[in-house]
Amino acid sequence: MGAYLVRRFLLMVLTLFGMSVLIFVMLRLVPGNITDIIFDSAGFVNPAKKAAIERQLGLDQPIVTQYITWMAGLARGDLGYAFVSEKPALDEILPRIPVTAKLAVLALAFSVLFGVPLGVISAVRQNTGLDYVLRVVSLSGLSLPSFWLGLLILMACVHWFGWIPIYRSSPDNFWQEIALLSIPAAAVGFRSSALVMRLTRSSMLEVLRQDYIRTARAKGASEPSVNYDHALRNAVLPVVTVIGIEAAFLVGGLIVTETVFNIPGVARFLVEAIRWRDYPIVQNLVMFIAIIVVMVNFIVDMAYAALDPRIKYEE
Amino acid sequence: MRARLALGTVVSALAATLAVTPALAQKQGGTLRIYHRDNLPSASIHEEATVSTVQPFMAVFNNLVLFDQGKRLNSLETIVPDLAESWAWDPTATKLTFKLRQGVKWHDGRPFTAKDVQCTFNKLTGKDTEDDFRRNPRAIWWQNLKEVAVNGDHEATFVLNRPQPSILSMLASGYTPIYPCHVKAQTMRTNPIGTGPFKFVEFKRGDTVKFVRNPDYWKPGRPYLDAIEWKVIENRSTRILAFVSGEFDMTFATDVTIPLLKDVTSQAPKAVCEIAPTYVSTNLIINPAVAPFNDPKIRSAMALALDRKAFVDILSAGKADLSGVMLPGPEGLWGMPPEVLQTLPGYGGDVEKNRAEARKIMEGLGYSEAKPLKIKVSTRNIAVYRDPAVILIDQLKKVHIDGELEVIDTSIWHAKVTRGEFSVGLNLTGVGVDDPDVNLYENYACSSERNLTKYCNKEVDTLIDKQSSETDVAKRRQIVWEIEKRLAADLARPIIFYDRQATCWQPYVKGFVLHHNSIYNNWRYEDVWLDK
Amino acid sequence: MAVIDHEAELARAGANVRGPLSSILFFARSYPLGALGALIMLAFVATAVFADAITAFDPLTTNAHDSLAPPGDRHTLGADFMGRDVLARIIYGARISLAVGLGATALGCLGGMIVGLMSGYFGGWLDLTVQRLMDIMQSLPLLVMALVMAASLGPSLTNTIIAIAIPLVPNVARVIRSSTLALREMPFVEAARAVGMSETRIAITHVLPNTLAPLIVLATAQLGSAILVESALAFLGLGVPEPHPSWGRMLSESAAEYVRTAPWLVIFPGVAISAVVFGTNLLGDAIRDMLDPRQRF
Q1: Which residue in A38, A41, A55 has the most chain B C-beta atoms within 10 A of its own C-beta, making it the best mutation to test that interface?
Q2: Which residue among A11, B180, B385, C184 is the one 20 to 30 A from C211 at the CA level?
Q3: pTM for the full model?
């Protein structure tokens, strides 16, 4: 297992390195840079001053030099200065992480809390009316644009309660913040819960057909005990995988949801930074997201391996 | 604040003075909560050309002089003292001397002196090369300023090359705060320090901007508010919903469009909403350097195709103003009256007749309905630009011009236009102060950096200088109209309309007066108080 | 020729190998939800194709008097801010959505197929390099990837399709690669090799056709997600630009301005997007059940 771990880890580092090159190059292919943007907001362009700012920000350097500067900075733990706010990039990114993290955890919790039980029910009641209803609901969860769902929720809240559940900068306490975040979390989590439900259902169905379940039934184990003790325990494995996959999808959902509910998290910040061509923010933030995604996948792989002894540590 | 305007009411009173009802005792305290419409680029007013920066940050600063915050219309007559206690012209009308207030302190405790005034204008005129502004969008405002001379700590003299009465208007704009000498330009972009009623606390990009009361403010008893808190909400319907549900005390300047106003007034019937000109024009830019637009005939056919009324009807439910270059009355002080406007090419008469004439011109050049002139209409990828562009294309179709919309990413719009990489474009232009010097120099003078189409007519330049040095308002207005006629004949950036939008605030917000001929000058907030 | 018999496969999977009409009936009976999905898709495609015949309104013509007109006699689903008929825009928007959905899926699948086939069949350093590249692309969420792509390509219909297609490539490549790996060792491939066929030819004529089943399953799933990604991009200001009536942009722009004043502008395009994506999902599920009964999720 040790060798597998090392190999897996090296691959991870390689992936991240490739990611850094990719995002670095792609960002610089985006037309216009920060100087275009700041002159745009001033409504004119002064070529001499534009060049001076580019020089000051190091944008006139060859792209390889710029990349090395970035990497050398990263190695020292220095993410550079944000172009727009002229503050250290780290100070811009860090404070925005907790709120996104809370939102993501809540959304995941929502998707598991709804997805797993409904998936089990749907499998146990396979091909009944209930099963069909649950499947259609879950499919519709995968079909709604999540920002649209968020908007409908906003409209409904204002219409019926005269209250708008957008984020406030200073909630009174932790619980109030959680309460505020739970609505957007549900909007994001709805999609994931649909996926979790579908996966739980299918793996439950597969497990229910296995020999040992039949054996358990034959031995006279009660139906609920068969369904929930034997089957569910074995069906959980693939669900772990989907959580790994969803971690990446979640970020996409978070971007639009943070925009709709005006939550000042990292996901929305990323879009903002792309729009402003704020390279230090975008490249560091994208690396951060990539690290999280790669790590989650790594952990999920490990968990999978630990949970299922049949997996061999080879590729 | 008795002047609550019902929907659709147009302010007709020129220079309506609004006295705060004396019976009401102002209450101290409270936090004013306002939403912001977008991510403001920086905190430095001098380096920006957008109300996004002026509206929040004007409260941090003082000017030398200021447009009276309590009067609706800005003019040379409504300028009141701010950091300058008094001012006087010398007999040649080229030296303007300000007596400065004593005992004023910057927010960091350092004393304010005449040196600070000098420093500010050295930067604006490009004399300070050491700590330069990154951008200086209004350099053209100060082209006639030779120097600022200092006499002791409390007197500063503006020395001009030639007489220019309007320099006072520019000094009185929210765009012209006095910056401290001892703070670097970079710091002013992130942590601005001023002498104003509110101190800057923090600026969380894309999220919040906070200000607190300056307890050492030089004006006794002001400001009333303890703090001002801005929250950025980029989605307009979300922020209007938030205002309607009482989350905010005030909307962003002119943020409520005419169609949305109906909604606000029905959902929040107590809210005070005023419709006022935004002094932002929607205009057509034609690149005369690109064929076939180098042919004045094609340009005039395009001008004849415009149905300005249709634009106004669609985009502002008929509320916006048809106009020439200067904002029309009753709010605008310099615009041409409708009967004069009618005489400009493409303004008067029947649209159908104009278009028939345009078609004749086009047919003379070999175009027809079957064989139209194919062009690209470039515009910025924002709805306020795209919507009129779509209408423009619709209208050009009627004169054998087949336009294809080319949306250009916001980041490169100005760069592309400045490089002349467009043939026909739809553009928006905001004007800071209702003064011909500001509008004409910025947008039509040969030397202006913000003259997007690089329109350059020496005769017009001479006329612009002439009106600028004219002290008699009536005479000056005649010259301005003469310039308007030339600009219209040359089709220099034909103005399609000047928009109108509403600004709303809750009924308990008192002491606030919305200016009606500029959106850049009334955000000091020192007289605002909350009646809660 | 030892190509796996497609019909036999289908028959084994429970499909009926008979005339087209009875096959359709059989499909509808075995997969009622799938049939519903197919019906929705059919309606969608028909709308896109016959847009001109369905509505009398031009989706681009503006009209001052109808600005924000509510649904009624003149405008069945109301009119937008510029007085353009919403129904007409939705109908013509079907073309855009179809173009984006099909275009991006086809492009993504084609790219993924080539990459996956080469990497799976030829193996070696090529496989290693390609796999790492795919790893890299997959370490970013699809939307983030599409976002950066869309920004760098600039706003246009073609660019939006490319921006959505590229992030799809790794998913497809993975699936094709793994089935190619299995097929490579199959007896009929060995046989072809023994006959002296070139490797490239074997890959194309013998391996490729047998990877189609999983590809179809994957493609139907991606079709819906491509349409959703377009709407999300539009919401973030980077989708298909004016004057094309894209559902995503219709929805997101009216959402940004008129949620309350004119809710129909927000509701109808959203319903259109959801219905079509729902249809592809239903159909995709049924096809998956049919072609690949082991993977039931």
Answers
A1: A41
A2: A11
A3: 0.86
CA angle C193, C198, C203 (to 5 degrees): 80
Q: Distance, in angstroms, between C1 CA and closest chain A CA? A: 32
Encode burial over C104-115: b for 16+ CB neighbours within 10 A, e otherwise: bbbbbbebbbeb
Contact C261 B262 (CB under 8 A): yes
Q: How far apart are CA C42 and CA C53, in angstroms?
A: 16
Least confident of A211-220, B41-50, B146-155: A211-220
DSSP secondary-structure letter at B522?
-
Q: Is B241 part of the contact surface with chain A (CB cutoff 8 Å)?
A: yes
Torsion angles phi and psi, residue B65, rounded to 5 = -130, 165
Chain A interface disruption, residue of C36, C44, C143, most A CBs within 10 A:
C143
Determine, for residues C241 and B383 on separate chains, whether the beta-carbon distance falls below 8 Å.
Answer: no
Contact between B177 and B45 (Cβ < 8 Å)? yes
C51 lies in which domain range?
21-56+80-295
Which CATH number covers residue C36? Answer: 1.10.3720.10
- How many Cα neighbours within 13 Å face the side chain of A164? 23
Whether residue C6 lies inside any domain: the answer is no
HEC per residue, B350-387: CHHHHHHHHHHHHHHCCCCCCCCEEEEEEEECCHHHHH
Answer whether B307's CB lies under 8 Å from B392's CB: no
Determine how β-strand B373-380 pairs with β-strand B424-430: parallel
Distance CA B72, CA B18 (A): 7
For chain C, the straight-line distance linking the first and the last C-alpha, in angstroms and rounded, comes to: 34
On the CB side of B298, CA atoms within 13 Å amount to 21
ipTM value for the complex: 0.84
What phi and psi values does residue B365 have, to the nearest 5 degrees?
-95, 5
Structure tokens at A126: 């396979």
Report if residue C11 sits inside a domain: no
Strand pairing category for B31-36 and B198-204: unpaired
Q: Measured between alpha carbons, how far is B388 from B409 in angstroms, rounded to an integer? A: 17
Q: Is the CATH number 3.10.20.310 carried by domain A95-307?
A: no
Q: Which of B134, B411, B430 sits opposite A40 (nearest CB)?
A: B411
Secondary element (H or E) of residue B147: strand B145-150
Number of domains in chain C: 1
B410-469 confidence digits (pLDDT tens): 778 888 888 888 999 999 998 989 999 999 999 999 988 888 888 899 999 999 999 999
Instruction: Tell me the two tokens of residue B409.
Output: 């990413």
C60, C82, C242 ranked by CB distance to B314: nearest: C82
Taking only the tens place, the pLDDT of each residue in B71-121 is: 999 999 999 999 999 999 999 999 999 999 999 999 999 999 999 999 999
Angle at the Cα of C80 from the Cα atoms of C78 and C83, rounded to 5 degrees: 90
Burial B69-83 (b: 16+ CB within 10 A, else e): bbbbbbbeebbebbb
A260 interaction partners in chain B (CB closer than 8 Å) = 235, 238
Q: Reduce the DSSP state of residue B430 to 3 states and report it.
A: strand
Q: Is residue C232 part of a domain?
A: yes
Q: A40 and B450 in contact by Cβ < 8 A? A: no
Name beta bridge partners: B89: B96
| Integer Cα distance of A31 and A275 in angstroms | 11
